[in-house]
Amino acid sequence: MKNPFTIGIAKKEKFCNRRKEIKELKSLIQNGQNVVIYSPRRFGKTSLVKRVLKDIEKTDKNFVGIYADLFPVSSYQDFIEFFSKAIIQSIGKEVDKTFFQKIKNLFKNIIPSFTIKPDGSFSISISINQSSSIETLLSDLFKGLEEYLNKNNLKACVVFDEFQEITTLEDSKKIEGIIRSFIQEQENISYVFVGSRRKLLIDMFTDKKRPFYKSSFLFLLDKIPKLEFVKCIVNSFKKTDKICPKKEAERIYDLVDGYPYYVQKLSSIVWDLTEKRVSEKIIDNALLTLIKMESIDFESIWINLNKT
Fold first, then answer.
1. Which range has the worst mean pLDDT, 85-99, 185-199, 258-272, 293-307?
2. Which residue ranges does the chain devote to CATH 3.40.50.300?
3. Using CA atoms, how far apart are residues 205 and 217, in angstroms rounded to an integer?
């Protein structure tokens, strides 16, 4: 039997609750609003936005969800590459006879090439016209996407995960300004800006001197309520023919103060240690295992705190 608890991005039945947040975020996106989602790390931001995009795509055939992870960016060329790949992957979720027609002339200075895999999926590599300026390349991206959507009578939501990372780039303020200038003119695209480095992200949208000042709704993702998370824990054990009494599920939640990542990870370890029924002793042993697993993280945090 497969462990039902997910440490990474939660999908389908492994997605725990968040009904209120799903409803609110879906409404904002469908009404064309731009949103900033912030919270501590590993609170489920990525799982939430990906779930909402899929939900909207299921009910609206004229909607395209585009997700770009910006965490690894170290240059504006990286931004161009990651965003253009995300656009192409969303437009052509499957390689069929219409795929290459869809992306033909999508960009002028950004040239994609493809490797088709045996299972029908594909990998993308991007070449950039090195003589083009930052303004030209960003214009190519944002206008190319907008023109494609208009031509095909589509709407879209672009999710920039770890958006605050663009502040680390050379000419970051210039890049912020250019991106903002394109976004504010688009009517059929909403944007969701996600980030874990909260101060950096929030400053981008609340500092009067910054291009994105007051351009988006601020959306705090809080802990999952205890009652709902406890239900998820109990049901996940039940679906895999194991028993976790409500009292023990509440203890799992309380031991890590409801922090979503640690609730999932502790539950996962408890599940591995449980043959049939969860006990207090099993949870104690699981907690010791969790502390050992996370000790390197805790040590690095402690070292960084002492440096400041």
1. 293-307
2. 18-220
3. 9
